[in-house]
Amino acid sequence: MAYFAYDNFLRTATILSEDTTTNFEMVKGLDGRGYSRAGFESGADREVVFDFGTIKTFNLLLLANHNLGAVGATITILVSSDNVSYSSVGASTITTDYVTEWSQSNRTYRYVKIKISGHTGAAYIGDLYLGTKLDIPYGMPRGFISPDQYDTDTITTNITGNGALAGVDVIERPKRCKIPLKNFERSWFDDNWAAFVASTKLFPSYFVWGSGERPIYFTFYKKVGSPKFTTNNRQSVTLDVEGVV
């Protein structure tokens, strides 16, 4: 099932305690800026405790702009109803530095503790998401290109005066891609469009186009686009986005 993830519960939660590195506090892993990261020194388990302020149900953890695969980190989610007794709802050892998805069963709690352990060097997270999914009614249509297969890098070939190849310069750029939302019932746009757009204008969101596929952590490219009616009760829009996978 394809989905967006944009409502990050951690962004509005109160951070009760954190074992983060000086100048790399947890808030820097929640601000939506690619250059800003939360840091966790190696040598011991590192924990951050969040208070949602009320009971919330979540089922998804996502990571972007991180190095947890490179340092062999394991991330554990622990939950509590009273901020006294915590129990683990699962642990995952991260094996790559790609944008990472970890789906969960529905969990309903007020307090959440995120534990980083087993890392052999300093661990960094550019964005840590805990929340729910905005499911998309249909899969991607024919002609869709997977975000991880887009390549918008700039390549410059250097040639000597006598025509020999002297080298190639590559400037890496964000993935710029299209997300088609075709012939969705109007009710889906009525229920979800305004909140999704308002959030993604302020903070990057995630898009997963299929089970087991690599997510993209994205922002809109210049403008959002407007859903148009394709029948009396169905609308379509193609999102032009850029981001990282």
Would you mind describing this structure in some detail?
- The chain is mainly β and 245 residues long.
- It folds into two domains: 3-135, Galactose-binding domain-like (Jelly Rolls, Sandwich); 147-244, no CATH class.
- The chain has two helices and 16 strands.
- It has helices at 9-12, 186-202, and strands at 3-5, 14-18, 38-40, 46-66, 74-80, 87-93, 100-117, 123-131, 134-135, 154-159, 165-171, 175-185, 205-208, 216-220, 228-231, 234-244.
- Strands 1, 9, 12, 13, 14, 15 and 16 form a seven-stranded antiparallel β-sheet that branches. Strands 2, 3, 4, 5, 6, 7 and 8 form a seven-stranded antiparallel β-sheet that branches.
- The longest helix is centred in the last third of the chain and has 17 residues, at 186-202.
- The radius of gyration is 20 Å and the shape is flat.
- The mean pLDDT is 95.
Topology:
Blueprint: E1 3-5, H1 9-12, E2 14-18, E3 38-40, E4 46-66, E5 74-80, E6 87-93, E7 100-117, E8 123-131, E9 134-135, E10 154-159, E11 165-171, E12 175-185, H2 186-202, E13 205-208, E14 216-220, E15 228-231, E16 234-244
Antiparallel strand pairs: 1-9, 1-13, 2-4, 3-8, 4-7, 4-8, 5-6, 5-7, 10-11, 12-16, 13-14, 14-16, 15-16
Question: What is the total number of structural domains?
Answer: 2
**Integer average pLDDT:** 95
- Write out the CATH superfamily name of the largest domain: Galactose-binding domain-like
What string gives the helices and strands in order? EHEEEEEEEEEEEHEEEE
Distance between the termini: 18 Å
Major sheet attributes:
7 strands, antiparallel
Instruction: Fill in the CATH topology of the largest domain.
Output: Jelly Rolls
How many separate helices?
Answer: 2
- Poorly predicted residue ranges: none
Question: Could you tell me the radius of gyration in angstroms?
Answer: 20 Å
Specify the CATH class of the largest domain.
Mainly Beta
Sheet/helix structural class? mainly beta
Q: Strand content of the residues, in percent?
A: over 45%
Strands, total number: 16
Oligomer: single chain
Q: How does the overall form come out from the CA principal axes?
A: flat
| Residue share in helix | under 10%
CATH architecture of the largest domain: Sandwich
